């Protein structure tokens, strides 16, 4: 859409306003020197300046930048309307086209600021703010220490997944808004998970003269962690990332100046504190990161290209596997599939949540083919004995049905509203119910087999759901 706006601007301003009529050089020069045409060209320059700002604005209608852009465009529209054309058709045509372009930018600005996806991004951001404020910021403000619970970590992860699934329709402002929300929430996730992973324990102050100051720095780092989370989520009105960065840098300088020679334990303690500070500093460059188009417009991203190349090859291998299964043969490209998993693991996500999600989904596509092959091979090689318990045989019968259903899921390319999707979902649910009805009667082998079969059926359902969620970069 933004490209269309710029294209229209070029078509309008890339040639003289001639009202759609051909004219000789003298008439054209006379027209361009007309006061009305001079004023329209002045408007042209202002519109060309505002166009890129409108096409990358990712905020809401209540923001100052939106009101500024709206005010400037409305002013230009009024000025175009006041241009005196003296009843001349050529000038009237030029004025009409100029007004259309300004109106187009106004419309594009409003559409993005009020788009359902933009509102969904804002709603998820506010939900994240509420979680973080209650779980991290408020305890710190009350003078206590925030206890990071597993529930908070899981809730943040769930919000990240929901944000990655917001549809942007390729609109740059929506992509930008989603990316900015994701980067901040992923940074918060990294901070709170880092806190639960590495609990640096203070040393006794009797250990060394420098320990007292290191302990004091540790207290300041704990406060800075909560302050950083508040900044990332827009919950700190007075502070800025630049100020916190200066504070943390000063702490690093002070730690570096401490004399801890001759004591390995204190040196290691100081090193741990320095690593914690550096872990916080790496998240303080986010204020302008969302302005880098390459970060949120991923069509030409090298990592995405690698992921797409893997997905293309997986699609070819999947087609070959299903074709061979259709004629009763078993094509076994597992070594190549494993190498594709290794390749995906080496893809650089550059801390970009969208690339991270794209890689995760590609991994699931590879794993779906591998698990299909594993089950097919197990079914072919299965040699049940005459004394096999009936309940164990019942589990294998369900697994055989699940294998056939997975083949259909692997080649499914429809939408959730399709009848085939609804049918597949219903059949998979029936297999889960069939497994639930199996009574192991105390047989441990049957218990394990049923548990694995349930997990397998649930994975197929999740994969089917992923294939139809219309996720985009």
Automatic annotation (TrEMBL):
GO CC field: cytosol; membrane; nucleus
Keyword Transferase: no
GO biological process terms, semicolon-separated: negative regulation of protein ubiquitination; protein stabilization; regulation of inclusion body assembly
Top-rank taxon: Eukaryota
GO molecular function: adenyl-nucleotide exchange factor activity; protein-folding chaperone binding
Keywords on record: Chaperone, Repeat
SMART domains: BAG (SM00264)
Residues in BAG domain copies: 42-113, 210-288, 336-377, 391-468
SUPFAM superfamilies reported for this sequence: BAG domain
Protein name according to UniProt: BAG family molecular chaperone regulator 5
């Amino acid at each position: 859409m933004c490209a269309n706006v710029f294209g229209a601007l070029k078509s309008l301003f890339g040639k003289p306003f001639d009202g759609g009529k051909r004219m000789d050089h003298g008439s054209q020069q006379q027209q361009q020197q007309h006061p009305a045409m001079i004023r329209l060209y002045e408007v042209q320059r202002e519109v060309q300046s505002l166009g890129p700002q409108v096409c990358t604005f990712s905020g809401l209608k209540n923001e100052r930048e939106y009101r500024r852009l709206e005010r400037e465009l409305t002013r230009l529209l009024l000025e175009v309307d006041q241009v005196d054309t003296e009843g001349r058709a050529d000038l009237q045509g030029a004025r009409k086209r100029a007004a259309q372009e300004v109106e187009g930018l106004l419309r594009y600005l409003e559409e993005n600021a009020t788009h359902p996806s933009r509102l969904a991004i804002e709603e998820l951001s506010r939900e994240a703010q509420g979680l973080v404020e209650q779980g991290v910021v408020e305890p710190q403000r009350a003078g206590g220490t925030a206890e990071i619970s597993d529930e908070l970590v899981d809730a943040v992860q769930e919000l990240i997944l929901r944000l990655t699934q917001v549809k942007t329709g390729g609109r740059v402002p929506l992509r930008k808004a989603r990316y900015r929300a994701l980067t901040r929430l992923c940074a918060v996730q990294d901070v709170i998970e880092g806190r639960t992973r590495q609990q640096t324990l203070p040393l006794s102050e009797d250990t060394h003269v420098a320990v007292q100051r290191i302990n004091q720095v540790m207290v300041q780092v704990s406060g800075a962690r909560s302050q950083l989370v508040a900044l990332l989520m827009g919950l700190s009105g007075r502070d800025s990332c630049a100020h916190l960065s200066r504070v943390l840098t000063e702490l690093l300088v002070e730690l570096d100046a401490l004399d801890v020679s001759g004591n390995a334990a204190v040196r290691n303690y100081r090193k741990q504190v320095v690593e914690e500070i550096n872990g916080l500093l790496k998240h303080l460059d986010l204020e302008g990161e969302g302005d880098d188009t390459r970060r949120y417009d991923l069509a030409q991203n090298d990592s995405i290209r690698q992921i797409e190349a893997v997905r293309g090859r997986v699609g070819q291998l999947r087609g070959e596997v299903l074709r061979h299964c259709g004629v009763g043969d078993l094509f076994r490209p597992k070594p190549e599939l494993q190498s594709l998993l290794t390749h995906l693991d080496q893809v650089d996500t550059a801390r970009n949540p969208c690339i991270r999600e794209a890689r995760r989904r590609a991994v699931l596509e590879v794993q779906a083919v591998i698990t299909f092959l594993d089950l097919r091979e197990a079914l072919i090689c299965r040699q049940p004995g005459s004394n096999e318990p009936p309940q164990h045989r019942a589990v294998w019968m369900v697994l055989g049905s699940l294998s056939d259903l997975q083949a259909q899921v692997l080649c499914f390319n429809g939408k959730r509203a399709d009848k085939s999707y609804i049918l597949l979902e219903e059949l998979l649910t029936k297999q889960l119910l069939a497994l639930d009805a199996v009574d192991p009667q105390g047989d441990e082998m049957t218990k394990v087999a049923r548990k694995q079969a349930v997990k397998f059926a649930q994975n197929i359902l999740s994969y089917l759901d992923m294939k139809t969620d219309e996720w985009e970069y």
